[in-house]
Each structure stands twice: as structure tokens, then as C-alpha cells.
Amino acid sequence: MTAPHVRADPIEEYLTDLSAALHGPARAKARMVGELREGLMDAAADLSPEQPGGQAYGERATRQAIGEFGTVAELAPHFQRELTIAQTRHTAGAIALLVPLLFACWNLAEITDGSADGRLPGLVQTAAAHLGGVAAATALLGAACLAATGTLARRVPTPRRLPAVMAWTGTTAATALAISALTLTVASLLVSDLPMTVLAGALTFLCHAKIAASARLCRHCARLSPSGAVAGGRDEA
Amino acid sequence: MRTDAVRGHLDGLLLSVLEDGPLHGYAIITAVQERSEGALELRKGTVYPALNRLERIGLLRSTWQTAGERRRRCYELTDAGRRGLATERTAWREFTTAIGAVLNPAPEPGNAT
């Protein structure tokens, strides 16, 4: 005896396929797919207001609703475009927030301070200053990106290559932070204020991991977004 | 009217149906179709990322509302959204005036029969 065949809900099948085609921040993706689910359920109910047996809507109405909403292939580029921007903003926000935080931390540990009684070798101080400069530049780019994809996008079209630029900016920041973490680890062996330096190094490494992961996903999203579209620009119906 | 005809005007359409108050995604789609008496064909699924984008750029704000077991995201115009709608209307009037002048030129006084 075989188990009774359970037919999958067409809406859930459709949303699973769409979800699999999309990449970006999990929360933004879940919100967009969730909204689409509610819309499909409303549309299916609209197309079959009265169903026998207390059913909310029938399979034919569900299929029709899905047809009116568009196939996965038709919708995915529209959703992906917005998710790519969301991921770009996520990466930009991580850089703009974490890098200044690290600066504060480094200053606290007196690692980048040249007046710190000469406790660090000159080479380490120079390296920290250069890496700090790179990190500061990426933080500024991150802040500019947040503005360009936010309210500024009302007036100025968002450059279509911005997600890719931000992804590589994130990679640059993550690389600078990785080298900084290594530098701080070496420095921690040379200074007397060992705990603070170790803490700064560990925090730097954590920030590197966070930004690197975000930048990697941003690169992936940038590759998926339709090349002909202006990111953040007007959509089509 | 084909989906292509709506291209470029979706923002204005979405903002205009929200002028009277907050609506959730499907109610927005229905409102556009009712106002156009079914003449405008929307690819309904594309409305959701468009609403998301309008919220991102500050023309809309949204809140979750619960009705029974259903949770729906309701959108409403921000002050910037109201200004954006006014700009869309002005641009549309100028566009239709210009196109109308070409398609239906006013007869010149000397050529009147």
C-alpha cells in the first residue's frame, strides 16, 4: 500500500522556485517573498470567492493568479534588482559603521598613535597608518553609496555598476582589515599593553570576516542583476 | 493596453492610488486596475519590488498590519511621496500636451475650410 499522494500547494511551489532564484539579504528576501505570498493568496481568493467545503480558493484560481503575477523567469530579475541594491546597502553600511568603530578601537589601544611613546616599531606604525587610510577611504565610499541608493536616488539615477563597485570596495576594506589584524597580532608581541592590542586585533579580524562575507554576496548579486537595468532606477510593469 | 505602455509610468500610478490613504500590495494593484477600468495590464508580481524601491528612496513608508491570521504590509505616501506625485502629474501633463500637439495639430487659421 502506497502513501496517499499529497499535492503541493502551487503558491508554495512557485515561491520556492522564486526563492531559489534570488540572492541577497535573508530578511529583505523573506519580506519580499512573504508579501508576494499574501498578494497571490488575495488574488486567488478574488478569482474564486466561493469554494465548496470551506476551501478558500481552488487550484484553477491559484494557477490563474500565478499566471497573472508572472512566471518565475519574468519576476526574478525585478526582485533580484532590488535585492542586489539591498545587499549593496548592507555591504556599504557594514563598511561605513565597522571601519570607524575600528579606528576608535585602534586609537583606544594607542596602536595608530605616533605619539605613543614610540612603543611600536616604525614599520608597524607606517603600515597601520597606510591601512587606516585605505580603510577610511572605503568607509567614505560606503557612506556615499548609502546616500546614492537612498533618498538621493529620487534625483540622480543610481549608477548601474555601483553594486559591483561596492562589492570590490568591501573586498578592499576586508583585505586591509585582514592585514591590519595580522599587523596588530605581530605588534601585540612587541608592546607592553598586550590585552588591549590583542582585543583590537581580534575585533579587527571579526570585522574583516563580516565585511568579507557581505562583499562576497554583493559580488554574487551584482553578477546576477540584469546588465541592461539601471540599478535603483525605475522599474517596469 | 499592453504592459509595455505602462513602462516608465509605474511609479506615478502607484503613488496616485495611495493618495487617499494606506493600502496593501494587492489592494494597490486592484486600485490601479479599477481606476483604469481594466485598460492597464500590469504584470502584478512586478508591483512588489517597485513598492520596495519607492520605500527605499523615501517616497513611501510601510507598516505591518494584522487582519485575522493574515499579516499584510501597508504602504502610505510620505511628504516626499506627495511632492513626487505632484511632479509626476506635471511631467505627464507636459508629455501628453507635447504628444497631442504632434498627433492632433490645431488647424492653421488660413487653411480653415
From TrEMBL, chain A:
Record key words, sorted: Membrane, Transmembrane, Transmembrane helix
TM stretches of this protein: 91-109, 129-153, 165-190, 196-213
Organism superkingdom: Bacteria
Name this protein carries in UniProt: Integral membrane protein
Automatic annotation (TrEMBL), chain B:
Species name: Actinomadura yumaensis
Protein name: Helix-turn-helix transcriptional regulator
Domain of life: Bacteria
Residue stretches making up the Transcription regulator PadR N-terminal domain: 14-86
